[in-house]
Amino acid sequence: MSAWKSAVTSAALLLALSPFARGQQNPEKPVVVNLHDAQGQSIGTATLSKAANGVMIKLNVENLSPGPHAIHVHQNAKCEGPDFKSAGGHFNPDGKHHGLENPEGPHAGDIPSFTVGSKGRAETMVIAPNITLGDDPHSVFTGGGTALVIHAKGDDGKTDPAGNAGDRIACGVITK
Cα dist. 101→57, 98, 105, 159, 160 in Å? Predict the structure, then answer.
């Protein structure tokens, strides 16, 4: 019976010392980003969560044109329409060139494109391999946050500065 008491005591001690018991939140808990178009209308959400190979972004969007669309993390936590230029350039803490296929890249904010279906909707997941939800230089929370931007066209994976992805058509602020 003493081994059982020792195990229960150890488990209780570990729980008491955990960040949750101290009232702290998990710094890498999922983050929901509300996405809006140039007119300020909601087009859906992106849920960011930690993945083994980066950050998983679960997209649930609508009212977009069918076909491929680029999605990038931009450096400023601002989404002022109609052109979303307030979001700045791609999140690029390492000063690299654009594109997941670029030998001199990629920007940390470069993410594979996704495809919108014929009815203007997409429910899909993409992996952002070079960002985190932590406190490091690649964190989307760096400098008070960043923005998630959807472009009119797909990303060619290599052309500076934005992969020939076209206009910025939707944006959402990423903050803690």
Answer: 20, 9, 7, 9, 11
Contact 74, 59 (CB under 8 A): no
Give a yes or no: residue 79 inside a domain: yes
Domain count, the chain: 1
Parent domain of 95: 26-174
Q: How confident is residue 121, by pLDDT bands cut at 50, 70 and 90?
A: very high
Amino acid symbol at 157: G
Reading the block at residue 86, the tokens are: 């307030």
Spatial neighbors of 124 by CB under 8 A, at least 6 apart, are 58, 59, 114, 115
Residue 164 inside a domain? The answer is yes
* pTM, to two decimals: 0.82
pLDDT higher than threshold 60 for residue 118 = yes
| Spatial distance between the Cα atoms of 113 and 71, rounded to a whole number of angstroms | 6
